[in-house]
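Reading is simple: the token line describes the chain's fold. The lines below illustrate.

. . .
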Amino acid sequence: MKWSALLLSLALLAHGEVMSPGVVRLDPSRIGTIPIHTEVDTLLMFPEAVTLIAGKGMTDGKEPGAVFFQQAENPSLLLLRLLQPDTPVLMHLVMGSEGFSFRLVGSENPASIIRFHTDDGTVPAIEIPEDEVRKQKSEMSWERREQLLQLAIGEQVLRPKIPDEYKDFQSRTSESQTVVNGLQIITTKIARFNSENAIVLLADLENHGKTPLELAPELIGIRVGDSRVFSPSHLQWTERQVQPGAKSQLAVLLLGDGRGKSLPISIENQFSVILRSDSNPSVTP
């Protein structure tokens, strides 16, 4: 099996469906579970090089086994595929000075890509040096805040026309999802204007519940990693009242940390638009 065949294997199965890419925190004190399938290659992405892969039933293809594994030229990337559905396999890995164990379980809903991160709450990334943003101001006019949101939303069309606005601009796509009380938010894009110390998140909110949702600024949060939550500095939405079965597109701006201090953090960290747990959704009778 060639590494380049990974994308070809991520097609829908005859029964069940491949899970969307996800992010998981590594915990050496617990045994994790990874759902895999005979027709799908599951990609594991670790924050550091994996120096040992072991476990009864694991095979690199040279000998028979229950689960095939292949390590990429980059030793932090590992590919898995199930060979024998009824054979339980416990995989052991060594990364850095820690060891981790995972149950590899046959499933009709296998994982596609799992991006692991350390227990510090954020995905490892090259942080923007503090001295590069120390002189940046978090105070900004309402008009400029609106402009930054529109620049992020319309990047594909606007960037060729006004390239000066994008000189220090970075962006990437995202598939981060959160679900609360039947309300699903999928963060689709993460962008940063470095010189203005500004981060923009674009997201789609869909109401799968039975009650209309009235959006309000205090209801929305920006989560970085698993534990850091910030309040938005500015918001836009296409629909403030989201009826059951309806959607609203959100554009969320964070200036610094939202409280006047710089936030020198890369967009390669895991970002999510969330509904804050300390705020009750406003519903319309």
